[in-house]
Amino acid sequence: MTTQAPSIPRTVLHEQVALRLRQMLVEGEIPPGAKLNERELCEVLHISRTPLREAIKMLAAEGLVELLPNRGSVAVALDEDDVRHTFEVMAGLEAMSGQLAAERITDAELAEIEALHFEMMAAYTRRDLSAYYRLNAAIHRAINAAARNPVLTATYTQVNARLQALRFRSNQDGEKWQRAVQEHEAMVAALKARDGAALARVLTQHLHHKRDVVLEQLRSNAAPAGPSA
């Protein structure tokens, strides 16, 4: 890791450290399977080991980090079966969120989602993947929150944590990123129409497309390099 992150004020709780680490994991500064070097992270983030270790425990509970006995912690790396199974569950959770949100969303919540969508489109126009992903994730969380089902939200949050880095990287292909944007436009249209069935369909399709892109990336990365010229 070579990027120098801004220092974190001493008065900020370890939740802020977890937020910074989560971004580093999602955006690939700490790649899947990499060990979290506590000394290096303390230097980069300008913090002591106590808040760092508390933050790592939080991320382990979310499924982003794996704690290994006598070996420290590593960024979770999912194999193809993990990806298929997790996206299968996530597609169902997203569809249920959409179905219920279309029935229960308030005008104020809908206006907020539309505003987030406009911001996300601006980030897409700039090709600012970091800002795009942050706004994209906020839209999905807002749809889930509008469903008003705390059990669904708790399950959604837990499962989605395992997929954040993969969902981020799935937009690095320009054509597939454009398709994802079009699907988001369809989501907003279905939500405005209060059409739960249509929203559930587009969310399911959206997650299936994400799964397919991620599996393609995993296979590409695992493929042996051809002979050099």
Word description of this protein:
This protein is mainly α and about 230 residues long. It folds into 2 domains: about 15-75, Winged helix-like DNA-binding domain superfamily/Winged helix DNA-binding domain (Arc Repressor Mutant, subunit A, Orthogonal Bundle); about 80-220, Four Helix Bundle (Hemerythrin (Met), subunit A) (Up-down Bundle). Helices cover about 70% and strands about 5% of the residues. It has 10 helices and 2 strands, in the order H-H-H-E-E-H-H-H-H-H-H-H. The protein has a two-stranded antiparallel sheet with strand order 1-2. Strand 1 and strand 2 (about 70-75) form a beta hairpin. Helix 1 (about 15-25) crosses helix 3. The radius of gyration is 19 Å and the shape is globular. The protein starts with 13 loop residues before the first helix and ends in a 7-residue tail after the last helix. The model has no long low-confidence stretch (mean pLDDT about 90).
